[in-house]
Design brief:
Layout lengths: L1 E5 L5 H4 L7 E4 L7 E4 L15 E4 L9 H6 L4 E2 L6 H16 L2 H10 L4 H11 L12 E5 L3 H12 L3 E5 L5 H6 L5 E2 L3 H7 L2 E4 L13 H6 L4 E5 L8 H9 L3 E6 L12 E3 L8 H21 L20 E8 L4 H11 L4 E9 L2 E8 L5 H8 L4 E7 L1
Length: 389
């Protein structure tokens, strides 16, 4: 019986993928095999020694201590792309909100207090205050062409926009999905100088922290619109506030409110709504449940940010040994030697590595004793191991 602990609400349609005859699921559970979260902060939590996997129903991982978990040999799964359509639609909405002054115009009408005749006269006299501009023919710059960025690019093309994108690490799969009409930028600066709208779709790392600063804001077109539905911290808010004041930036639409910009009339702050749709939550939950089940029941790994991808069929007979170890020479040989000394025949062996982590799945012809497991666990560099029957 596998035990799953949920520290946030995970959509029922996802949890229903765990068969109850094999899984126990609860928010309060002792010795969990896996922990599922959305926004719960694991940095200050003591992760039980029983935990074999962490699952995040979403793409961002700022709430998870990935380095610590990697050192313990625990894979961290996420769900890239499961909420991509929800974010795409919000980015498109953000461009329309900014270009047509929709929030300010709506607020203006709501505050009018007049008779119907006076109301029509008032509106006719003042609607010119909210004259905007169309998206068609404008250039959208996309920094980051992952699952969300590609969808935004293709949607913008269909709206008649010119699109320029920058992503030096774009995957082959995303490149296949991307419209051939998207122009490639050779650098972030090259993109910023060309775009009327700039949308960010990158994680927050040391390389992307405050990547939009005073000097880069000065490179942009006069009256540029910035959209940030990626991560707080990518844009230097102090520099941005000054650029908005100087009207270098026409409008800023963000999913990450900050006190310095919250009340500015040309800033639209949303309460982190990017993935907040019923469909996105369900997609994330289903995708995550399938990945966690696959890992616990077969040892296979997909969409683990700190482990290599490894696909292997379900075990048909014998016993499967899954070993996480430091990525150093001679580890597989040492493990194999221990198995051979115990009279076990290796039926199949699959080994892959990612940075400092190596992951090995070995199928043997008969049971592995507790004593043998202890011997293998004692090999220097072995971080985690388990058997799958």
């Amino acid at each position: 019986m596998f035990k799953i602990q949920t520290l946030n609400h995970i959509a029922a349609i996802g949890l229903n993928h765990f068969p109850r005859e094999l899984y126990e699921i609860s928010t309060e559970i002792q010795h969990p095999d896996a922990i599922l979260v959305r926004s719960y902060n694991l940095h200050n939590m003591l992760i039980p020694v029983s935990v074999k996997a962490i699952g995040r129903a979403g793409a961002g991982l700022n709430n998870i201590p990935i380095t610590t978990l990697t050192q313990r040999g625990i894979p961290v799964f996420n769900t890239p792309g499961a909420n991509a359509n929800a974010v795409r639609e919000l980015v498109i909405a953000g461009m329309l909100l900014a270009s047509r002054h929709i929030c300010a115009a709506w607020d203006y009408v709501r505050q009018l207090q007049a008779s119907q005749i006076d109301l029509e006269k008032e509106i006719e006299q003042n609607k010119k205050k909210f004259v905007g501009f169309e998206l068609m023919g404008k250039t959208l710059g996309l920094i980051g062409l992952g699952s969300v960025g590609v969808k935004v690019a293709n949607a913008a093309i269909s709206l008649g926009m010119e699109v320029i994108g920058y992503d030096p690490t774009i995957s082959v799969n995303r490149a296949w999905e991307l419209s051939s009409n998207v122009r490639q930028a050779h650098s972030v600066d090259d993109l910023l100088m060309s775009a009327d709208f700039v949308s960010f779709h990158v994680p927050l790392t040391e390389a992307t922290k405050n990547m939009i600063n005073t000097s880069r804001l000065q490179l942009m077109k006069q009256g540029v619109v910035l959209l940030n539905f990626a991560r707080d911290g990518i844009i230097d808010n102090v520099a941005l506030a000054e650029a908005i004041h100087e009207q270098k930036v026409f409008a800023y639409v963000t999913d990450f409110p900050c006190a310095a910009l919250q009340q500015h009339p040309r800033v639209i702050c949303l309460p982190h709504l990017g993935a907040s749709t019923k469909e996105a939550e369900e997609n994330c939950a289903v995708m995550l449940a399938k990945q966690i089940r696959h890992f616990l029941e077969t040892g296979s790994i997909s969409n683990a940010v700190n482990f290599p991808m490894i696909e292997i069929p379900a075990l048909q007979s014998g016993v499967r040994l899954a070993v996480v170890n430091e990525n150093v020479p001679n580890m597989v040989a040492q493990i194999s030697s221990q198995l051979a000394a115990a009279g076990l025949n290796i039926v199949s062996l699959l080994n892959k590595s990612l940075n400092d982590i190596a992951y090995t799945i070995i199928d043997v012809n008969k049971d592995i004793t507790t004593a043998l497991l202890k011997q293998i666990a004692s090999i220097e560099g072995v971080m985690q191991l388990r058997t799958i029957s």
